[in-house]
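Handout, section B. The chain below has 536 residues.
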Amino acid sequence: GINAEYMGDTKTGACHRADHLLEDHIDALLDANPQFSDEEVLAHKKTRGEADAYTPEQLTAAIRKYEIVSPDGNPLSDAYPFNLMFGTQIGPTGKCKGYLRPETAQSIFVNFRKLLEYNNDKMPFAAAQIGLSFRNEIAPRAGLLRVREFQQAEIEHFCEPDVATKEHPKFKYVRDLRMSLLPAKNQDGEDRIEEMTIGEAVAQGMVSQTTLGYYMARTALFMEFIGIKMDKLRFRQHREDEMAHYANDCWDVEIYGSYGWVECVGIADRACFDLSNHAKDTGTKMTARKTFAPRKVEFIHKKKNKKLLGKKFKKQSKLIAAWVDEQTDAAFKKFVEDLDANGTNTIKLCSGEEFTIEKGMLEAVPQTKTVSSEEYVPGVVEPSFGLGRVIYSLLEHIYWKRDGDENRSVLSFRPLMAPIKAAVLPMSNKPEITPFAEDIHRELKRLNVASRFDDSGASVGKKYARADEQGIPFAVTIDFETQTNESATVRERDSGAQILVPLRELPRLLRDLSLEGVAWASAYAAYPQVKNSMSG
């Protein structure tokens, strides 16, 4: 969220995130006390899990209960709310207040009408955006996981009114995907994971609707595709005390790493909150239209006695008229029924103003009309990716060291994900070898295969180690035999296995291996295998 609570060191004045102080203290407490009973551990974990949803008063009480002090050992102030949006001044005078965006999504909402027009006024549709967001974190920490400037990728899927009952057209393709789900009801400190298909989760009402379920499943498939270990990934449902008041349902994709479970993606059913509020604040319609065969419908004509309203409320009668227009037929009918029964009824505006309406000022008149279309404010399902956290987690999951040599580190990018696909490694800088290596490097570039040319004087084993550290999946070694046999060896990073490939076939084979059009196992079976003590 864009709000947090901080506590100040009463001696140094340093500020600290209150929920982080509480979470870190409980982690240290549990690590230092393995003798705690299961009940005690669950109670502490429950408090830790709820910390980020606590009010300032609850955080202060918990900090005092655990007798937590600042990192410098000093007493802490009470917890105070803090807006994480970065403030700035717009223009040369500095009198116009502005804020750096805390998320990328809102620029999609303000362009909703143009996006709908671009989609030929057809619903549903989705728009995506990648960009920088900014949050004035009180205490950035955990490496790249909590920073003040970060990259977000967000999708806004605009939905029709029947999204809760109408199945997403592509849900059938993911219905049977098994997911690791942590529903809100299980977040009691024990955090019991439930394994089930996304279809079962929707059918049981655990996930609110199929469009939300579809994006959850597609996110899981994406994470598996890029290399995240699926036994270290879970979907955690927001508890009632942390769920946004307007949201129908929300799930976080959490990935386990050296900092524990880290939220990397949020997937929310935000209903029509965003478009409704943009429309309200700007006076611009943010609606779509649904057409159907002509039919007669009953509706409530919201009749306003302008003479009586104007006489009593003067200019404020416009506020009352606007409130009336915002009400649903059912809500307005109930208001008037109470008005007629009691003689008066009170309108309460979101601004806090109240107006006492007298009998006869408003009427609910049932009428019938023929309609063939209707306007509605679309709801939204929003997957929001924190790209830095996803990439950081991926790097942790694919990093390992070779057995028997702690100094040999490897990043096991799958070929499609590797930034550099191949390393071209001449065994020597002598003129008999260099032209072959340069030709291979040039041909790989022509085929759009990202490659790295290493003609340093290091040993081939050292060159392999450098390539492994950079996650390069394939290495081509050109040696003195290349001139006579017109072949070069290709080494696969993870296994260290090598094959001998003719130069005329080499560039296209590397392209196909990099695009995963050809599997390494197939290439290994098709070409002569090379035994080399330096292959690992």
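Note. Residues 210-226 form the longest helix (17 residues). Compare this with the example in section A.
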